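Why should sequence recovery work at all? Because a backbone constrains its sequence more than one might expect. Tight turns favour small or flexible residues, buried strands favour hydrophobic ones, and helices have their own preferences. The token representation captures these environments compactly. In the example below, the structure is given first.
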């Protein structure tokens, strides 16, 4: 009788739908801003809070292929990064850093060594964008994401943000 009950429970658990947190969300890239140098997106489906930090996926699409610093014969046109942001402390650390070719599908380089310590937005090459990303996260929390995105898409992005920022940061991309 125990075996039969166990089998019924086991089969029932296998057939039951997984909870939402266990299911992997498909990326939902939302355009935040576009400059002559890049288009910047945040994945609104893969935002996760953990303690004081919020983990977000960011994507940067470059209209012109950029040389991989470690191998100028190779080029990338897209960067995807998973970043932990401590918005209150104005600090960030990159968790994943991947570069893709012009199709946006073929991985050019994947740097598994980016995990590092938190550093201030001021000292991070994408710090200006992180400040805005934190504003987006706060708007999302308040249920005002659509209004914030619309406002950002009309506003100029501060400073010059482009592929050179990753090179200045000493990014290994290959």
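From this structural description, the recovered sequence reads:
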């Amino acid at each position: 009788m125990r075996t039969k009950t166990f089998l019924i429970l086991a089969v029932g658990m296998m057939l039951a739908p997984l909870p939402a947190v266990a299911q992997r969300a498909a990326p939902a890239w939302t355009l935040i801003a576009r400059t002559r140098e890049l288009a910047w997106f945040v994945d609104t489906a893969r935002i996760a809070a953990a303690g004081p930090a919020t983990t977000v996926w960011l994507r940067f699409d470059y209209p012109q292929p950029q040389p991989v610093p470690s191998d100028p014969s190779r080029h990338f046109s897209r960067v995807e990064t998973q970043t932990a942001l401590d918005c209150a402390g104005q600090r960030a650390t990159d968790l994943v850093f991947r570069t893709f070719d012009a199709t946006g599908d073929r991985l050019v380089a994947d740097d598994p060594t980016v995990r590092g310590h938190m550093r201030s937005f001021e000292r991070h090459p994408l710090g200006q964008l992180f400040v805005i990303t934190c504003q987006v996260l706060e708007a999302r929390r308040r249920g005002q994401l659509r209004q914030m995105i619309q406002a950002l898409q009309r506003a100029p992005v501060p400073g010059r943000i482009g592929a050179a920022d990753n090179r200045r940061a000493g990014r290994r991309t290959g």
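A few observations help interpret the result. The domain at 25-168 is CATH 2.40.128 (Lipocalin).
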